[in-house]
Design a protein that fits this description.
Largest sheet: 5 strands, antiparallel
Number of domains: 2
Distance between the termini: 71 Å
Order of helices and strands: HEEEEHHHHEHHEEEEEHEHHEHEH
Strand content: 5-15%
CATH topology of the largest domain: Dna Topoisomerase Vi A Subunit, Chain: A, domain 2
Number of strands: 13
Radius of gyration: 27 Å
Number of helices: 12
Shape: globular
Helix content: 40-55%
CATH architecture of the largest domain: 3-Layer(aba) Sandwich
């Protein structure tokens, strides 16, 4: 079997596989919608969060149901993290569709067997073959010429080419997305609901289980750290971890965005704080239109603002530009210490001073002021945070 025949066989197998997966997804979608699990963007191998159709959540749009379709399309699983619900389940694709899957595996195996025989017989450099295989456009052009020369049925080839083009475009987009952002499927995190010790940790900071559930705060399975998933449109983009008493780390090589980004979608006024716990404290006070920076505060203000490409420390602002542009008023509720004030200055320089206001936190006692939103919540002994503005600080 020559290289073009091998590639033609591989193309037809790829088209068959994509068609089977589409049928399985349609079947799963129909079954899931019948029990109330509805999603506008069904994807294989990507965990999603949505309101639980059973308990409806305690607040509107509580994203307390974690849902996952396996990358093979064979089944879907879900679990509600609501303490009063805990709904779990699993649905499999129909037997008809599942029978197709072994057939395509068998076809692929035959192709690879022929390919291995060819490799052994010719001893050619298979790295070169891989490059040719990846260059789908060149291979398909050569294939077209070959079929035209031999007088084979071009209608069949055109259908395969069109289907292959769509498949390859889809995979190219996914590969580009994975290379640039390396989005993580929720199932790959090995996360679980918060245990008692971490719930107590948040209770000591006056943060309720309801707020934790709505924000999808979890823990790693080793029970050594709290997990703060960073989501955009319900999909996890990255995750930040905190050990107790205080140690932080993040997933490597992931796109950096603001924590709580979905809460400021289309908001005309937003609040920016310095940490995830401050964002949760703001919600306890009634302010959901709040986000946190992912990396804390810089030690001091930089001399110059770098270009977007070189502004690595504040790349999260550029990544969330579409959300931030819609706000006419931005409240910078950073920490009261020197790094916190430096962060406020850096944010104002990039977001536009004309729409930024800086918080002046109230006094904790006769000599000290509260450091951040969570400390205000603790000292005030009530779930209420007010903004104290100094005329000198308006605008920043």
């Amino acid at each position: 079997m020559d290289i073009n025949s091998c590639l033609a066989a591989a193309v037809e197998v790829a088209v068959l596989q994509d068609d089977v997966l589409t049928k399985q997804l349609q079947d799963l979608q129909s079954k899931l919608e019948a029990i109330g699990i509805v999603c506008n963007d069904w994807k294989f191998g990507v965990g999603l969060s949505m309101p639980c159709p059973k308990c409806k959540g305690r607040q509107p749009m509580d994203m307390n149901l974690f849902f996952f379709i396996h990358e093979t399309g064979k089944f879907a699983t879900w679990k509600c993290l609501g303490s009063d619900c805990g709904w779990v389940g699993k649905i499999e694709a129909t037997g008809e569709f599942m029978e197709d899957y072994p057939l395509q595996k068998q076809a692929t195996g035959k192709f690879m067997e022929q390919y291995a025989i060819r490799k052994q017989a010719t001893g050619e450099d298979m790295g070169h073959y891989s490059k040719i295989k990846q260059a789908t456009g060149e291979v398909m052009e050569h294939y077209a010429k070959r079929k035209q020369a031999t007088g084979e049925d071009m209608e069949h080839y055109s259908k395969i080419k069109q289907a292959t083009g769509e498949v390859m475009e889809h995979y190219a987009k996914q590969a580009s997305k994975s290379e640039d952002c390396k989005i993580i499927a929720e199932s790959q995190f090995n996360l679980e609901p918060l245990s008692g010790k971490f719930i107590e940790f948040f209770e000591e900071r006056r943060i309720s289980e309801e707020t934790l559930r709505r924000n999808g705060v979890l823990q790693n399975c080793s029970k050594t750290a709290i997990a703060f998933p960073y989501r955009r449109d319900g999909e996890i983009i990255s995750c930040k971890y905190r050990s107790v008493p205080k140690g932080f780390w993040q997933e490597k090589d992931k796109e950096r965005i603001l924590y709580g980004l979905d809460d400021i979608k289309n908001a005309s006024e937003i609040i920016i704080v310095e940490g995830e716990i401050d964002k949760l404290s703001m919600e306890e006070a009634g302010y959901r239109n709040c986000v946190s920076v992912p990396d804390g505060a810089p030690p001091s203000v930089s001399e110059n603002i770098p270009t977007e490409e070189k502004d690595t420390k504040f790349q999260f602002l550029w990544n969330c530009k579409a959300y931030l542009e819609k706000a006419s008023r931005i409240i910078l509720a950073t920490d009261a210490d020197a790094p916190g004030q430096a962060l406020a200055e850096e944010l104002a320089r990039r977001l536009g001073r004309e729409r930024c206001l800086r918080v002046k936190w109230p006094k904790k006692d006769a000599t000290e002021v509260c450091k951040d939103a969570n400390e205000v919540d603790l000292v005030s002994c009530s779930h209420y945070i007010d903004f104290y503005f100094d005329g000198k600080d308006i605008p920043v």
